[in-house]
Design brief:
29% of the residues lie in helices and 24% in strands. By secondary structure, the protein is α/β, with parallel strands linked by helices. It has four domains: 208 residues, P-loop containing nucleotide triphosphate hydrolases (Rossmann fold, 3-Layer(aba) Sandwich), CATH 3.40.50; 49 residues; 32 residues; 272 residues, 2-Layer Sandwich (Nucleotidyltransferase, domain 5), CATH 3.30.420. A hairpin with a 6-residue loop joins strand 9 and strand 10.
């Protein structure tokens, strides 16, 4: 028998390397061996190390457990949840090629993920670069939202786009920020259910849901977590050794330490994090593993910083505190009570010693348009967005006649004085363009654009999906007037949060965003009588269920809600202006500091809308 030459041996070795099955690695082992972090997407570029954040290991390796079908991650920010998704993608591209789909809340976010996160990882991780075509490849299977590789492909989709979710069967379903998904993808139904059904034909299917939670009772990720093993990352007490989760209630503010709930011993952040952590399940569920993480576990966030951010959020009012609970503790926010008590607000009215109380720096106005009247409210704003209601005024008249429009114009031209005699004009007015006089409002506002009087149009989805308060602008009307599009649901939430904000916190520190209401005097009826407060509290946030998904909507509990609408429009006015309320001088001259070149406008359907020059 002839002995093979060296070239033949080398050839067979190369063939063996190609056809040999890949080593059996877990997702975390794959990441430790192959993953490279990109400089533009990571503060710590270079080789991936799971030991840097050891709580990630079991989350990733749950994907390798044959019993586990669904993994749920309810978490804060700053814990690396996006990296977990990226490692999962890298693993399946290299080790276990499969059809995958990654769903983001919107198609735009899906495109951003592909460009800013997936493409850099594929470029900088050699084993992925060999398998995934480059961003500029002529390969027809490679686009921004769809990338192929030997044995599989990955599609990036938006939960708001039914067409992007309509795909071939998918084995690996990756769902990011599910609490920001719409209730329904168009008319197709719940996007989570819609995509999950595409994996039913695979016996070895996997589904990963990741999100920061939102509101208790209306949070997708909270619901999924409660139907899972409900695991918590737990560290051993340096004194007694008993494992326990990192709980905010046990954190000591004075020295950024934590007390053990078993022995009471107090240890520093470093001492706690030096311990060997483990996941402790609160429920038995072999098919659905659920993990909860908060920022206290993060290696990238110091407890001292988290405490400072909490104190700042608490000072800034309910809305900011809600965001902190969601993004730092990774917990859903629980609303306290369904509706504000109008009597509490009515009874906290106070005496103003001038038209404009001390502390006010800018005045805004809001106009609600009815068939037989204008309802107008003037509000003042000071440092920390502290808010003073100045006057609620009704101008009666037939809106088909010119006189009532002239009366409104004169009212918006007037000034209000403080105790020093300084005169405050209205810095910006938002005027409702709904109802039966839309074109008349557009014409009125167009002629007064130089005085920053803008028409507004409220928009809502009706399914709990929150649009930002300032959505964008449009000039698509007969008079080419600038119309500001408002997300009224978000506006109502901001107003209600401000109304719930106390004047001082538990430590006696003045809170940011407190709302003041004036008492009327014999000389002046300010308009803040009981009827006003009944209108201000005329809506409540109710939880409803659509297609099995809970969501929250504002529901009228009284017939008249004009005061609430005007509060939203005034809130929009100050957000359009964006003055530096903490540092500016009172606006008595007609010039708003640092606002002369600001333009407000956003994109809609890929086209930049015309902005507001303020």
């Amino acid at each position: 028998m002839t002995k093979p030459d060296q070239k033949t041996i080398s050839l067979f070795r190369r063939i063996a390397r190609v056809v040999a099955p890949p080593p059996k690695l877990t997702v975390s082992e794959w990441a430790d061996q192959f993953r490279r972090l990109s400089s533009e997407a990571s503060a710590e570029p270079g080789q991936w190390r799971t030991d840097r954040a050891p709580y990630q290991r079991e989350i990733m390796d749950a994907l390798n457990d044959e019993e586990v079908e669904t993994i749920v991650v309810m978490s804060s920010a700053q814990v690396g949840k996006t990296e977990i998704i990226l490692n999962a993608i890298g693993y399946y591209v290299h080790q276990d090629p499969s059809p995958m789909m990654l769903v983001q809340p919107t198609l735009e976010l899906a495109q951003a993920f592909s460009k800013d996160r997936l493409s850099p990882m594929a470029r900088d991780t050699p084993e992925l670069k060999k398998r995934m075509a480059g961003a500029k490849s002529r390969d027809s299977g490679n686009t921004m939202l769809h990338k192929t590789f030997p044995g599989g492909h990955i599609t990036m989709a938006g939960a708001n786009s039914p067409a992007s979710l309509a795909s071939r069967p998918i084995r690996i379903v990756l769902l990011d920020e599910v609490d920001r998904y719409p209730i329904s993808a168009g008319t197709e139904g719940d996007p989570v259910t819609l995509v999950s059904k595409r994996a039913t034909t695979f016996h070895n299917r996997k589904r990963l849901l990741v999100s920061t939670p939102t509101t208790k009772g209306a949070s997708r990720i909270e619901s999924a977590y409660e139907d899972s093993s409900m695991e918590q990352w737990s560290l051993p007490c340096p004194s007694c050794g008993d494992h326990q989760p990192l709980v905010w209630a046990q954190i000591r503010f004075e020295d950024a330490s934590m007390a053990c709930k078993y022995c009471g011993a107090i240890h520093s952040e470093i001492e706690w994090k030096n311990g060997h952590g483990k996941w402790i399940a609160r429920k038995d569920n072999s098919k659905v593993r659920g993990f909860h993480l908060n920022e206290l576990a993060s290696p990238w966030k110091r407890w001292e910083t988290i405490i400072e951010e909490f104190l700042e959020a608490r000072r800034n009012g309910t809305e900011t505190l809600k965001a902190w609970v969601n993004t730092s503790l990774g917990e859903p926010w629980e609303e306290k009570g369904e509706r504000l008590d109008e009597d509490i607000l009515y009874n906290r009215r106070e005496m103003y010693h001038a038209d404009v109380p001390e502390g006010v720096k800018v005045l805004t106005a809001a106009v609600d348009t009815q068939d037989d009247r204008f309802e107008v409210e003037i509000q003042g704003w000071g440092a920390g967005h502290e808010n003073w209601h100045i006057q609620y005024h009704v101008i009666y008249g037939d809106l088909k006649q010119q006189q009532v429009w002239m009366d409104l114009d004169e009212y918006l031209k007037r000034t209000w004085e403080d105790v020093e005699g300084r005169k405050f004009p209205i810095a910006l007015t938002c005027m409702d363009s709904g109802g039966h006089f839309t074109n008349e409002v557009y014409r009125f506002c167009k002629e007064r654009a130089a005085r920053r009087i803008f028409a507004i149009k409220g928009e809502g989805t009706g399914d709990g999906t929150r649009l930002p308060l300032i959505i964008g602008t449009s000039t698509n009307n007969r008079y080419k007037a600038t119309v500001v599009r408002l997300g009224v649901d978000e506006g109502k939430s901001k107003v209600m949060s401000a109304l719930k904000t106390p004047l001082v916190d538990k430590d006696g520190n003045r809170m940011r965003g407190y709302c003041h209401f004036p008492l009327s005097t014999p000389e002046r009826n300010r308009g803040y009588e009981r009827q006003y407060f009944e209108g201000l509290t005329a809506e409540a946030l109710h939880t409803r269920v659509k297609m099995g998904v809970p969501y929250q909507v504002w529901v009228k509990v009284r017939a008249r809600n004009e005061p609430l609408d005007l509060a939203v429009y005034n809130r929009a006015a100050i957000e359009i202006l964006q003055p530096d309320l903490d540092n500016m001088q009172p606006f008595c001259t007609g010039v708003i500091p640092n606002a002369s070149s600001r333009v407000v406008g956003t994109r809609k359907k890929g086209v930049a809308s015309k902005g507001i020059q303020v």
